[in-house]
């Protein structure tokens, strides 16, 4: 298949204050932005990525959903998400990038990230404006991360990991709308495995009953878990992933709509167009033209 038009950046591709290895970097956003002008185009990341703004206006786009930039805003991204930003005037804040294995190499199970809704790869859950009372706490944590990264102190990586977890918990407590009914460990495992199965099979497996079979549970049980803890049905979780991939492919102008329909295993071009229009309220070509103009 033709290579996507947007580039994928890894941590070692970036100009930033480095940690002791290529698993994490943290920086002040103004310096990071000046050192990485190539990030002004649509791109995706092979790492976890978070930004907190202390100054600036403009916008940023995560998986084709546009959000404003403002003081006190923080956003989180998982590996693989498509992203672009644009700013008006001076902008500053903090940025942290870390590999999917950063916590694992410190003997902290990286699955801990799955407990935080803002790492769920749902753009609307990933962008939060923090309360005034929380901003000072968050900025202190970012400064502590930069301090630990700048020296050669013992156990600095472990200290940064604990600071990141403190940051995630502080943000979660701050924003009541993202706090949901916490699933049990067993249910959390099922949902995590469901999302992983979707990532592996969404192009060929499109029905909840097939995923339920792979998880050794009933379709009704899977659907109930998704509604209770994700707020949407199992079928919608699958559809959202298919639509997201379609959008990502549509900004590759070397691919025809028919090529994309085939890549996503739709029976024909017409069926794909109807599917896309039903759930996005626009046609693939209209979506492509809109994003091309941007």
Q: What structural category arises from helix and sheet content? A: alpha+beta
Count of alpha and pi helical runs: 11
Q: How many strands appear in the DSSP assignment?
A: 8
Low-confidence stretches: none
Alpha-carbon distance between the two ends: 25 Å
As a whole number of angstroms, the C-alpha radius of gyration is 20 Å
Characterise the protein shown here.
The protein has helices at 29-35, 123-126, 132-150, 156-174, 185-201, 208-215, 219-229, 234-250, 257-263, 269-280, 284-293, and strands at residues 8-9, 24-28, 43-45, 48-62, 65-69, 73-77, 82-98, 127-129. Strands 1, 2, 3, 4, 5, 6, 7 and 8 form an 8-stranded mixed beta sheet that branches. It is α+β, with helices and mostly antiparallel strands and 294 residues long. Helix 6 crosses helix 7. It has 11 helices and 8 strands. Strand 4 and strand 5 (65-69) form a beta hairpin.
Q: What is the structure about, briefly put?
A:
It contains eleven helices and eight strands.
Strand-helix topology:
Layout: E1 8-9, E2 24-28, H1 29-35, E3 43-45, E4 48-62, E5 65-69, E6 73-77, E7 82-98, H2 123-126, E8 127-129, H3 132-150, H4 156-174, H5 185-201, H6 208-215, H7 219-229, H8 234-250, H9 257-263, H10 269-280, H11 284-293
Helix pairs in contact: 3-4, 5-6, 6-7, 9-10
């Amino acid at each position: 298949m033709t290579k996507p038009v947007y580039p994928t950046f890894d941590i070692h591709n970036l100009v930033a204050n480095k940690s002791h290895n290529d698993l994490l970097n943290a920086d002040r956003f103004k310096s990071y932005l000046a050192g990485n002008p190539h990030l002004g185009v649509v791109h995706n990341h092979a790492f976890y990525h978070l930004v907190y703004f202390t100054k600036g206006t403009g916008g940023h786009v995560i998986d084709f959903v546009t959000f404003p930039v403002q003081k006190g805003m923080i956003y989180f991204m998982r590996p693989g998400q498509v992203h672009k930003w644009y700013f008006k005037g001076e902008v500053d804040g903090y940025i942290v990038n870390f590999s999917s294995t950063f916590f694992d190499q410190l003997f902290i199970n990286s699955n801990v990230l799955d407990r935080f809704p803002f790492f769920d790869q749902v753009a609307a859950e990933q962008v939060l404006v923090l309360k005034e009372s929380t901003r000072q706490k968050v900025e202190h944590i970012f400064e502590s991360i930069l301090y630990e990264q700048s020296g050669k102190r013992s156990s600095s990586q472990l200290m940064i990991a604990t600071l990141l977890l403190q940051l995630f918990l502080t943000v979660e407590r701050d924003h009541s709308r993202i706090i949901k009914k916490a699933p049990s460990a067993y249910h959390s495992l099922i949902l995590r495995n469901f999302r992983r199965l979707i990532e592996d099979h969404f192009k060929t497996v499109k029905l909840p009953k097939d995923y339920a079979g792979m998880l050794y549970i009933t379709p009704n049980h899977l659907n109930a878990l998704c509604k209770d803890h994700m707020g949407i049905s199992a079928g919608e979780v699958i559809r959202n992933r298919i639509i997201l991939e379609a959008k990502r492919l549509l900004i590759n102008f070397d691919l025809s709509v028919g090529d994309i329909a085939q890549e996503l295993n739709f029976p024909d071009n017409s069926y794909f167009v109807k599917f896309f229009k039903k759930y996005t309220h626009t046609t693939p070509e209209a979506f492509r033209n809109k994003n091309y103009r941007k």
